[in-house]
Amino acid sequence: MNVGVIGYSGPVDSPFMKRIYQICLQLGEALAKNNHIVFCGGRDGVMELVSEGVKRANGTVVGVLPHGETGNKYLSLRIGTPFDNITRSLVLIENCDVVVSVGGEVGTAIEVLMAYARSKPVILLTGTGGWTDRFSGILIEDKYLDSRKNTIVMKADTVEEVIKMIEEIGRQRKWVK
Fold first, then answer.
1. Residue 115 dihedral angles phi and psi, to the nearest 5°
2. Regarding beta strands 98-102 and 2-7, do their DSSP bridges make them parallel or antiparallel, or are they unpaired?
3. In a structure prediction context, what are the per-residue pLDDT tens digits for the chain, which is 177 residues long?
4. Half-sphere exposure of residue 152, counting CA atoms within 13 Å on the CB side?
5. Contact 132, 101 (CB under 8 A)
6. Of 12, 66, 130, 141, which residue is 20 to 30 A from 73 by alpha carbon distance?
7. Does an H or E element contain 165, and which?
């Protein structure tokens, strides 16, 4: 499946990234080892660390980039867009079967909402801070963002749980590899 990973941007050595550094690498590696193609915003922060993990496991990671950006060095494929950071997120989300959220600020919140509005399942990797943890605390019936119930929003505490959830989504949707 095409798995989108969204989350904090910024230097990978920043205080908020140091706390989730290993989790991001593990997530990228696990997604690649399970033959998923990873889509991300292609820049720094969570995107860079997950991309590094994917490359370590010889997987494929696609960066959907804002105008004028070249992306991080771990990307397998770069998709340049004529859009800013937020607008390019539409292209990113549209190409994903499921979205995994790790921490994040306002851009991540917008991407979670876009995924939900487009009926793309969302997995919140809890304990990573930011909007990921904020969303996990406000879910309706512990699995929806609003009364429309467009798609399910799931909470995972570990990378292993994320992978199991993605596998279950694939089974339910009968994805063919």
1. -60, -45
2. parallel
3. 999 999 999 988 888 889 999 999 999 999 999 999 999 999 999 999 999 999 999 999 999 999 999 999 999 999 999 999 999 999 999 999 999 999 999 999 999 999 999 999 999 999 999 999 999 999 999 999 999 999 999 999 999 999 999 999 999 887 544
4. 9
5. yes
6. 130
7. helix 159-173
Cα(104)–Cα(9) distance, integer angstroms: 7
- CATH no. of 2-172: 3.40.50.450
Backbone Cα Rg of the chain: 14
- Residue-level pLDDT at 175: 53
Using the 8-state DSSP alphabet, how is residue 147 labeled?
A: T
**Quick one: tokens of 72?**
């991080």
Structure tokens at 7: 């989350």
Measured between alpha carbons, how far is 4 from 38 in angstroms, rounded to an integer?
Answer: 6
Classified as helix, coil or strand, 142 is coil
First-to-final CA distance of the chain: 8
